[in-house]
Every structure is written in structure tokens, then in C-alpha cells.
Amino acid sequence: MCMPLWYGGDYNPEQWPEEVWAEDVALMRRAGVNLVTVGVFSWSRLEPSEGRYTFGWLDRVLGLLADGGIRVGLAVPTASPPPWFSLAHPDALTVTRDGVRLTHGSRDTYCVSAPAYREASLRITRALGERYRDHPALAMWHVHNEYGTPCHCDHAAAAFRAWLRERYGGLDALNDAWTTAFWSQHYSDWAQITPPRATQYLPNPAQALDFRRFVSDEMLAHFREQRDLLRELTPEVPVTTNYVLAGWASVDHWKWSTEVDLVAIDDYPSGPGMAAAEQTAFAADLARSWAGGRPWLLMEQATGYVLGPRKGPKEPGEIARHSMQHVARGSTGVMFFQWRASRGGAEQWHPGMVPHTGPDSRVFREVSALGEALERIPAPYDGPLVEAEAAILWDEEAWWAAQGPGLPSSEIDYLAAVQQAHRVLWRQGVPTCFAHPSHDLPAYRAVLVPSLYLISDEAARNLAAYVEGGGTLVVSFFSGITDEHTRIRLGGYPGALREILGITVEEFRPLGEPVELPEFGRATLWSEVVHLDGAEAVARYPGGGPAVTCHRLGDGTAWYVSTRLDDPGYAQVLTRAGLAGSGVPGVEVVRRRDLVFAVNHTEDERPVPVQGTDLITGKPVGGRLGPGGYVVVRP
Predict the structure, then answer these.
(1) What pLDDT score was predicted for residue 312?
(2) Candidate list 47, 146, 278, 396, residue with the active-site label
(3) What is the DSSP letter of 144?
(4) Which end of the chain, N or C, is surrounded by fewer C-beta atoms within 10 Å?
(5) Coil/strand/helix, residue 134
(6) Helix or strand (DSSP H, E) at 38
(7) What are the start-end ranges of the E strands in 567-605?
(8) DSSP 270
(9) What whole-number distance in Å separates Cα of residue 376 and Cα of residue 553?
(10) CA–centroid distance for 615 within its chain
(11) In angstroms, what CA-CA distances link 278 with 17, 426, 587?
């Protein structure tokens, strides 16, 4: 018998009177919910004073859920310490890079390096683990929430120095890596080193990058401590945490994904309509890639859009379409934040599965219909799920380095470059995954390298071997520029990739106004003075210099795009490189093992290359898909 998909969301019963809890369970059953996350921000209710636990309310909640056949992802609530902790341990409060010590009153106000915080985290973890280790509702452990909070206090400074000692061994190696001869920054004692706090002008980019690496490792150590304790108490229960993809979150997800039992992500598209569909596919492909192609979990999404200061509902059908995009790419469930929209608090306008209007609402009817549909789809089983034809290189360290100080243009945006590469492939219907630059690159039709500013020698050799072995590489501007310490590779850009690409870039010339390239259209933001060293010019700037180049190396081909093209121009480069797709505009088709998912994101009926019986409706699919429709077919 196939395992069902998980379905549900964050449940915060402590926000509601106890008489609402039975109604919640009844509504969950009506909506097809079978998993809820409980207790993510409940530390102050579970431990109202140090060492005094009040688990009675949680006992009753878990009992009601178990009786209703609903399993629980029980959270360890360390993302939000209670007020008593902050008063007792003010040194464990977050200090910003400007030296401001934050006060309690929001979430994530802690220093992950503070001994008192680490000890308190383990205490509440042990208390929860020992009490609920045999509870019938327990399905998984959810540690913390959206790791990403940095701190610049003295605790963090001491831990940073210890991390640097282990990384470099001695000060000579650190001084060399950080180029401390510049601006009289040479360190003669470890005590002189601090986190990159606010300073008069630009901070040292190598120091800033190493601090972000440290923050990722320090948070991972905090996760491991709780994970190991939970594994000791409940060895058969998986332990996870929810990833957030954000520029402020210093988390190396490739490294973290080897430590969690189940990769889990939060996904909140930053634009509505087709942009949301594109971003949803992007997040889901990243998650599947971090999980090594195995099943993962959509831990959070919203029934509406949360677009900074503007919040509103998703259009009819979008909740289901976005959910199916995730399931198609290997999510073992569909979860939301949150079950019931809050009456008060900082996120009272965050949408819920049960909106403020209540269950007699379009949103809840759509949520219930989605639950019914998901019951008909088997959960993905272990092993490679989606066969990708192309890979995009993704490296958080390169992203962090590209956010560093003093770059030749403040408009360079690594995430936007990666998203464009994925968006163009998505529109062309090319199945895509992500890979780390040093990962093994099997026989992909192409590997795309969008603005990979930082690259190691190992990664450069890996890309050369891929091309020489017959691969097609497409490299975008501002790639291969520095080594892993953000030191510029001398002798001409793009540094580590010059020989692969058969070019030397002499100068960068950021663009103020767009220029037109024959065949590839509008070029913006950036241009370069490119010299050919074996490559041929496929397109030239109006002044005659090479703009797009192609180089044969071994049995493969390496393309270089020295400017930012609009999507149609970038798509044309990929077509010339042999990566043309056959997608239907606005329709995505994903093959997950023996199932085919087709989703129509348009308001028109569209053709789909799918034949078979729809698992959702039981009706045959005749090669057409109605406006906003989706089907799941076993051919």
C-alpha cells in the first residue's frame, strides 16, 4: 500500500481558548489534514520559569489530535526564548553589527553562541523528548525555526576565533587568506579578531565571508546538539528543521542537508501570478537538489501572498497549483503556515488555512478540496525522483561573497541571475536541478553557471573535466573572479575559467544604458572588454568587441555571456548551445518516476503532451488542460 502524502500546517493552539481545540480537530478531519506542527513558538507556555514545565495543555492537545488520527511534528521551540530567559541572561540577547543589544519582544532574539542559550535549548529539548517519546501522535521532530540569526557579541567573537583557529591553524595563514596587509589589518594575536562589526568604511570582504561561514556552522552545531539528544531518546523518529531561502540567512544548505533526516523548506513567492509559479518551481527544485534527489517536505507556504507591506489572498486555484508543483518535484507533503489565522500578534495578517472569516470561506473550501486531491496521490518513495536534463550551479558561499563590500557594481545580484537561468529553463520545459560547483556532474545536457563570483580550484577543475568529457557549459558574466578567500585571480578575468572559456577579459564596463546585440537583443547592467584566446565570437557589442563567445574544449563546448541579457536573449543563447526545450507556454509538465504532473498556469485551455487517466478525477486526459487546471497521470 502506498504511503499517503502529509497534509497540514503549523498549529498554534496556545493562541486560542481550549474550547476551540475540538473544533480545530473536526475541521482538520474535514480538510483531510493528517499532520500538524505544534509548539514552534511555545517555549514561554511550556516553561514559564526556569525548570518549571507546564505540559498539561500540550498533553490535552496531542491527545485530541491522536484521537482524531492526526500526527504531529513536535517542535523544539528554541527559535524564541521566553521573557524570563532574556531577563536572566541579558548577555544571551542578540547584538547587531552596530553594537546594539536587542531586547525581548520579537522572535529570534538570542545569540546561538551564548552558553546559557545552548544549555537552555538542551534542557527544553530533553524535557520534551522524555515526555513525548512514546506518544502515538509523534511523527517527527521539528527543531527550531528558520535558522539564520547572526550575533556580533563577545560570545560570538570568542566562538568565531575558535572556529578560525580550526580553519586556518595559525595567524600567518589567516593573515594571508584575509589579505590583512591592506589597510594595516595584520593580526598578531587571536584576541584582536572580532566579528565584522560596524566600522568607519568598508569591512574586509574575506572576514565578512568567513563570519557567514562561521554563523552557518555555529547554528548547525546548535541543531546537532538537539538532534543527537532526540535521536538518543527516539531513534526511530526523524529530526528536521525548516530552511528559509533569504539573503540574510547564513546557512550553507548543501552542508546542512547531510545532517537532517528530512530536508524541509519554507516557500513564500515574492511575486503573484506567473512569477509565483516560476519561483515555486525554483524553490522546489532547490529542495529536491539539496535532498540529493530524494523525497523532502514543503514545511511552510501560505494560502495568500505575503509581499512585504502588501498581503492578500492567492487567486482561485493557486493554492492547489503551487502545492502540486512541490509534490511533482518530490515533496512528501503539503504544509502551510498556519492552520488558523491569528487574531492578534505581529503576524495577525498572515493568511491561514482557516482564515479570519472562518471555514465558510473560499480559502477553506479550496484547502479542503486540496486535501481530498492529495489523498489520491501516492507519496514519493526513496531514490531519484525527477530526471534532470540541465543543472544550475548553486553555491551559498558565492552568494554571500557577491553581497560583500566594494564590488564594481552594487547592482550585481547572484540570486537574480540564478533565478533567471531557472526561469528560462522552466518556461522551455527543461527538467532542471541544482548542483554545487564541486559536485559530480553526470551527463547533463548542459550546466549553467550564473555569475559565480567565487570559485575554488577544485570546482574549476571539476567544470573543466565536465566540458572535456563532452558537456556543454554556459557561464554568465562576473564568474570565476575570486578564490575561496575572495582574493582576485590575477592575469585577467574570468580567473579560474579563462582556459575553459578560451577568453581573457581585460576590463569590466558596467552599463548605464542598454545596448542591442544582434540575435540576442537587449543587454543591460554590464559589459566587458573580451579578448579571444581560442573561442569564437557569437555576438559582438556595437563597438565590435565580443559579447557572447563559444569555445570547443575536448569533446565539449563552453559558452560565455559577458552581459546581462533579457530572458528571450538568454533563452536564445541556451537554444544555440543545444538546450532548446519543447514546453507549452504557461504549462509545466513534470515526470516524477511513474507519475506525470501537468499544471496549467494560464487562463486559457492549453495542449499538454500527457495521455492517461487523471488520478484526481478518475477521468481520461485527452491532451488538453483547462484554464488553471492540473492533472496527475500514471501513463
Answers:
(1) 86
(2) 146
(3) S
(4) N
(5) coil
(6) strand 35-38
(7) 587-592, 595-600
(8) S
(9) 49
(10) 30
(11) 40, 7, 11
Segments of 438-586 assigned E as strands:
446-449, 472-476, 503-508, 515-517, 521-524, 528-532, 536-540, 546-553, 556-561, 564-565
The cell numbers describing 30, all together, are 474535514
Q: How many CB atoms lie within 10 A of CB 164?
A: 23
Contact 289, 433 (CB under 8 A): yes
Catalytic residue among 47, 218, 278, 300: 300
Known active-site residue 300:
yes
Instruction: Report the C-alpha gap between 124 and 53 in whole angstroms.
Output: 9
Distance CA 635, CA 620 (A): 10
142 DSSP β-pair partners: 75, 240
**Is the distance from CB of 318 to CB of 601 less than 8 angstroms?**
no
Distance CA(200)–CA(472), nearest Å, equals 45
Task: Rounding to the nearest 10 degrees, give the CA dihedral for residues 194, 454, 433, 385.
Answer: -50
H helices then E strands: how many in the chain?
A: 17, 28
Give the per-residue SS3 of 341-367. CCCCCCCCCCCCCECCCCCCCHHHHHH
Do 335 and 7 contact (CB within 8 A), yes or no? yes
Per-residue burial over 225-251, b if 16 or more Cβ lie within 10 Å, else e, is: ebbebbbebbeebbbbbbbbbeeebbb
pLDDT band with cut points at 50, 70 and 90 for residue 490: very high
DSSP structure string for 434-481: EE-TTS---S-SEEEE-S--B--HHHHHHHHHHHHTT-EEEEESS-S-
Q: Crossing angle, helix 318-328 and helix 362-374, to 10 degrees?
A: 30
Helix axes 414-427, 274-290, angle to 10 degrees: 100
Q: What is the pLDDT of residues 26-51, one digit of tens each?
A: 999 999 999 999 999 999 999 999 99
Neighbours of 442 (CB within 10 A): 10
Task: Kindly write down the DSSP assignment for every residue of 147-184, as one continuous string.
Answer: ------SHHHHHHHHHHHHHHHSSHHHHHHHHTTTGGG
Q: Can you tell me the distance from the alpha carbon of 618 to that of 503, in angstroms, rounded to the nearest whole number?
A: 56
Cell numbers representing residue 218 in the block: 555555529
Is the full-model pTM beyond 0.85?
Answer: yes
What is the rounded distance in angstroms from the CA atom of residue 381 to the CA atom of residue 401?
A: 37
Contact 450, 418 (CB under 8 A): yes
Q: What is the pLDDT of residues 300-317, one digit of tens each?
A: 999 999 877 788 899 999
**Prior bond of 572 cis (ω within 30°):** no
Distance CA 594, CA 635 (A): 7
Q: What is the pLDDT of residue 311?
A: 84
pLDDT in tens, 374-415: 999 999 987 778 999 999 999 999 999 999 989 999 899 999
The DSSP bridge pattern shows strands 630-633 and 390-393 to be unpaired
| Closest to 328 (Cα-Cα) out of 138, 585, 601 | 601
Assigned C-alpha cell, 482: 575570486
Q: What is the DSSP letter of 55?
A: -
The C-alpha atoms of residue 88 and residue 106 are separated, in whole angstroms, by 17
